[in-house]
Amino acid sequence: MLGMISLYLNLKFDWLLLSCLRFQVKKKQFFKNFTTILLFGILGTVISFCLISLGAFLLFKKIGLTSLTLQQFLAIGAILSATDSVCTLQVLSQEETPFLYSIVFGEGVVNDATSIVLYNAVQSLNFNNIDAKVTLNLLGNFLYLFFTSTALGIVVGLLSAFVIKTLYFGRHSTDREVALMMLLAYLSYLLAELLNLSGILTVFFCGIVMSHYTWHNVTESSRITTKHAFATMSFIAETFIFVYVGMDAFDIENWKESHASAGTLVTISATFFALVLIGRAAFVFPLANIINCFQKRQGNKIEFKQQFIMWWAGLMRGAVTIALSYNQFSNTQQITSSDSALMITCTITVVLFSTIVCGSVTKPLIGAVLLRNRKPMVSDATDIPSLEDLRQLFIEDGDPSEQRNNQMTQKASSLRLLITHPTITVHYLWRKFDDRFMRPVFGGRGFVPFVPGSPTGTADETSAAV
Asked: Who contacts 124 (Cβ-Cβ below 8 Å, separation ≥6)?
């Protein structure tokens, strides 16, 4: 059973790693919406975790499940908070709906990471004496796992860029460059597991850093090879995830051991799914409307039909949910074996129902709600009416007397731009810092030495620009 759980999580991590490493064209959209992604992926998941845990605690007592402990109710909240947005991503197009694609992809990855971090934090606590200290420990463990896993992924990603840029071994050899990229990327997952951190979060940020620096340090033949190889391997890993999820439906031993009637099974499974629906709606629509309150331009606001697709994309559950459920209930001694088997079978039922029913409806639903009568795409440059002001604001060269005369005006403009366009302003400052300090050390677009006989790949580099 532990081997099956490890296989689940390894396949999920492999799919995320390969997806992140080929996540090159739309990094600009991803970081443009980074604040929104973090709000939905972290705060939204925590809200869903709290509501599902509370709902399970209140409703399961009435159904007749009295053997579950507080820790297991919290674990159920973390288990059912892990979404699987693969079906929706197969329908959405980066070119036609860049905003929704970046939100659904980014939130799905951060959501899985947050759910696993919450689950690990719950497992590490002692609930024999419930007090305020337990709550603070839960919050502290969550923050520790989240930030240390993120930092580890960034460090390993930068290490891979520096190694491939500076070491002679493997340079300009497609086979060795591709092998080094894969091995160093997988190193982030191994280190995270060794340090008891979140491998999924580490892999995600390692992939983002590698796509920004490491990918540009190899020859063009290696870039083309990694692009198509990772896309193929990502599809294979994704297929295996669905295959193994389907195989769990035929785990006859769990169905027999649960000793539950069809009515009980349907009731608990329906309760699970209802909690998922409520927990998802409880943060998607409120957070989207809060974000809209801070958007000045009408075109930047999240429309209701986009909110609906974001809500729908998070209803499906997948491999992470099943893996955590097995990990929680397969070897526990705190509740009866029949109740443990019942929890696993109900989780499998929810995963199968959400994947088959909701997944099959996703394509026609998106076509009816979103893709018909959609507005023409607008260039990113037109999203910011004050973009030229932003560029002029941070120009360093100029007449010192003019700078002194306009100092107060510039400070006021800087504050205004930071308030009205915080993401764009931070992104602009980051680009200046990146070009001056990071790329000369770690490489990247525009800082790769010329390799005789290797095409420049200008078109690919332009499309991969952040």
From this structure: 141
